[in-house]
C-alpha cells in the first residue's frame, strides 16, 4: 500500500500537532490513501505524521478510532513498519484492545498485526505486555463478528509459534473458543487459518489436552465426514489438514480412545479407500499416521478389531505405493501387538502371509521390507499357536526371520530371535527344524551374533535363549 504524492504530509503533521485534527480531517486521510509512486514513502517518513498520530491516540479519544484506521492502512506497506515502531505506536495501540468499540478493536488489531508481522522480537514483546488475554477476550466477546474474528485469528496465527504465547494461551480458554470457531467456519480461508493456529497449539501438551476436552475431535470427525466424498482441491487440502491435526492431537491413551469412540477411525479408512489409487499421497500419509497412532492403546486395539479395521486395512494393501504399504503394515503390527486374537487372524490368512513374504524379498524399498519382517515376527510372538507357526513356515516366512536376526537394528534382531524361539518350541517335527537349522543357516547366524563384540547384551541373551529352545526340542542334530 502506498500514498498520493500530492498530499502535504508536513502541513498535515503540523495541524495534528496543533490539535486541529478532527475526526473529519482524519477521515479525509483514509479516503485519500491510494496507489502512487515510491517517493511518497519518503515524504511520509519525513513528515512526522507517526508521532502526531501517537499523540492523537494518547490524548484525543474522539479521533482515536480514525487514527488507528490510518495506521492500519499505512502499516500495510513493509517500509512503513519501522517508523511505526520507532514512534512506539505498537505499545500505544495495545490498551485499545480493551475497548468496547468494535471499530477501534478492528483497526487497532489490524494495525498491531501488520506492524508486528514477521517481527519475532516485537511479537515476543506483545506477549510480554499481556496481549494474549486481550485477544482471547475479543474472540470470546465478539464471536459473531466476522471482521473481528478474522483479525483476531490472524493475530493468534502470528503469535502461536512462540513458546511464550503457548504458555500464556494455556492459561486461557482459547481452546474452547477455537473449537467454536472451527465448528462454525464455512469457508476454506477461515478453516485454513484456524487449522494453522490449532497445529501450532497442538505442540503444547497442556493446550493439546484442553483442545480434546473442548471436543475438537468431534468437530474434526464431522469435517472428515462432510468432505470425504469431495474431489475439489480445496476440500482435499482441508481433509489433509484435518488428518494432520488428528495426528498432532494423539497425546496419551485418553485422547486416542476418545478419537476412536467418536468414529474417526472409520472416516480415516473411508478416506484412504477413496484415495488408495491417488497420485497425491499427502492425504494418505496424514490418515495413515493417524491410524497407526490410534492403534497403540490396548482398548483401541480391541475396539478396532471388533469393528473389522484389520480386514479393511488388509484390503487397502492392494496399493502398489511403498509409502502406503509401509504405514499400513505398521498399523497392522500395532493392532497385533499384545493381541493373540489379532495375531491369529493375521497369521492364518494365506494371502496376507504370501504378500508379506514377497515384501520381505523387496530390495529396493528397505522400509517396506523391514516392516513386513517385523509384522511376521509380531504374528508369531503374539499368538504362539501351532497353526500360525505352520502357516508362517508354509509361506516360507521363517527364512526371512532368520535373515532378520542379522539386522543392523537391535530391536529387529530381538523381535526375530523371540519369534524363532517361539516357533522352535512348537512341536512340528523334523520338517520345521530342518528349515530352521539346515536351510536357513540359523546356527551360523547365532554364532556370529554371539561372537560379535558389538552385539548388545539383550541380543546375546535372546540368541542363547533360542539355542536352548532348539536344544530342548529333542530333535536338534
From TrEMBL:
<dbReference type="GO" id="GO:0005085">
    <property type="term" value="F:guanyl-nucleotide exchange factor activity"/>
</dbReference>
<protein>
    <recommendedName>
        <fullName>Rap1 GTPase-GDP dissociation stimulator 1</fullName>
    </recommendedName>
</protein>
<dbReference type="InterPro" id="IPR016024">
    <property type="entry name" value="ARM-type_fold"/>
</dbReference>
<keyword id="KW-0256">Endoplasmic reticulum</keyword>
<dbReference type="InterPro" id="IPR040144">
    <property type="entry name" value="RAP1GDS1"/>
</dbReference>
<dbReference type="InterPro" id="IPR011989">
    <property type="entry name" value="ARM-like"/>
</dbReference>
<dbReference type="GO" id="GO:0005739">
    <property type="term" value="C:mitochondrion"/>
</dbReference>
<dbReference type="Pfam" id="PF00514">
    <property type="entry name" value="Arm"/>
</dbReference>
<dbReference type="InterPro" id="IPR000225">
    <property type="entry name" value="Armadillo"/>
</dbReference>
<dbReference type="GO" id="GO:0005783">
    <property type="term" value="C:endoplasmic reticulum"/>
</dbReference>
<feature type="repeat" description="ARM">
    <location>
        <begin position="130"/>
        <end position="174"/>
    </location>
</feature>
<keyword id="KW-0496">Mitochondrion</keyword>
<feature type="repeat" description="ARM">
    <location>
        <begin position="263"/>
        <end position="295"/>
    </location>
</feature>
<dbReference type="GO" id="GO:0005829">
    <property type="term" value="C:cytosol"/>
</dbReference>
<keyword id="KW-0963">Cytoplasm</keyword>
